[in-house]
């Protein structure tokens, strides 16, 4: 049995996972869909994911029965990485394709299951490394254990899962060219403007777009009538076509399910108002803001090793805080 696997550690990335799952369904994948989620994902978001994915599994690296538990006590900086490595524990499946929640499928990609572990596309920043946003792997508790051990002993050269995986699968660049996926299976949106002629030549064949960078699709606003993206003008202009594709799928396929789950609870609009009027739920999404924790609650989460490394406690936010103190 084979499956596409993704990971969402909070409600923001859960929205990305919902769109990814729907894009796989829309392109008629014959494979199972699995979502790993962190304990911070809300129940309504989990319910929506359960309608899209065949299996939704809560993973918590602080579970005392988890092999990553003691390792994380030594390396709390790699909390999100330990969570992502859970995908190797999905031993009900013989082969899987992992996809980050900020990816969008543009056509059927079931042929990826013909590839072997570890197959991935080159990273645009350093092509001798693979990008860990899309990769083929074979679940194995033995491999999982070795990855955890490597992670604990060597850490990550980039602070995340990509550094760990490239260190562990260190012969990817030279051993077997068949494990190098074509770039069309992991088209980095930020690469479009770094080599625009190549994008114009080959971009039409893209099968997966990966929204790399600080600003994710769900961070923008969308006017469903004009189909215009607003937010960071530079970023939005860079990959506006793909962003519009993401938002159209989000508003048409995901919003109705979210509305059903949240019911009368207040929503924060992800769309622009048109002529002072709010757009209907049938046209666009309104979603709840992330739950705000008190300073004491955040401190307690940190002490428990449950910092929101992909949200409020991201490296960028920590850096901003440090910069403000240094000034």
Automatic annotation (TrEMBL):
GO terms for cellular component: cytoplasm. InterPro entries: Glyco_trans_8, GNT1/Glycosyltrans_8, Nucleotide-diphossugar_trans. Keywords: Cytoplasm, Glycogen biosynthesis, Glycoprotein, Manganese, Metal-binding, Transferase. Its EC number is 2.4.1.186. Its cofactor is Mn(2+). The keyword Manganese applies. Coiled coil: none annotated. Pfam families: Glyco_transf_8 (PF01501). It is an enzyme of class 2 (transferase). It is found in: Cytoplasm. GO terms for molecular function: glycogenin glucosyltransferase activity; metal ion binding. Glycogenin participates in the glycogen biosynthetic process along with glycogen synthase and glycogen branching enzyme. It catalyzes the formation of a short alpha (1,4)-glucosyl chain covalently attached via a glucose 1-O-tyrosyl linkage to internal tyrosine residues and these chains act as primers for the elongation reaction catalyzed by glycogen synthase. Belongs to the glycosyltransferase 8 family. Glycogenin subfamily. This is glycogenin glucosyltransferase. It comes from Cynoglossus semilaevis (Tongue sole).
């Amino acid at each position: 049995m084979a499956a596409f696997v993704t990971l969402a550690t909070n409600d923001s990335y859960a929205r990305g996972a919902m769109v990814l799952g729907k894009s796989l369904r829309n392109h008629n994948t014959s494979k199972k869909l699995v979502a790993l989620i962190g304990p911070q994902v809300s129940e309504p978001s989990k319910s929506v994911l359960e309608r899209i994915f065949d299996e939704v599994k809560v993973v918590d690296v602080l579970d005392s029965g988890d092999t990553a538990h003691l390792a994380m006590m030594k390396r709390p900086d790699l909390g999100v990485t330990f969570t992502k490595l859970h995908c190797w524990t999905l031993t009900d499946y013989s082969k899987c394709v992992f996809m980050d929640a900020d990816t969008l499928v543009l056509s059927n990609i079931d042929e990826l299951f013909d590839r072997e572990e570890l197959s991935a596309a080159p990273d645009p920043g350093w092509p001798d490394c693979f990008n860990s946003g899309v990769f083929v792997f074979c679940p194995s508790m033995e491999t999982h254990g070795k990855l955890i051990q490597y992670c604990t002993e060597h850490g990550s050269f980039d602070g995340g899962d990509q550094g760990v995986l490239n260190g562990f699968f260190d012969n990817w660049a030279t051993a077997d060219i068949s494990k190098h996926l074509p770039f069309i299976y992991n088209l980095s949106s930020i690469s479009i403007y770094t080599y625009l002629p190549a994008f114009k030549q080959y971009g039409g064949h893209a099968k997966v777009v990966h929204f790399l960078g600080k600003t994710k699709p769900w961070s923008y606003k969308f006017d469903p009538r004009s189909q215009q993206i607003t937010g960071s003008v530079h970023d939005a202009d860079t990959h506006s076509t793909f962003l519009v594709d993401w938002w159209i799928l989000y508003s048409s396929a995901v919003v109705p399910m979210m509305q059903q789950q949240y019911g009368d609870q207040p929503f924060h609009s992800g769309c622009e108002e048109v002529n002072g009027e709010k757009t209907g739920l049938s046209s666009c999404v309104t979603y709840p803001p992330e739950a705000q924790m008190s300073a004491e609650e955040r401190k307690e989460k940190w002490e428990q090793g449950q910092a929101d490394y992909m949200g409020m406690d991201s490296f960028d936010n920590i850096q901003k805080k440090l910069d403000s103190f240094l000034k």
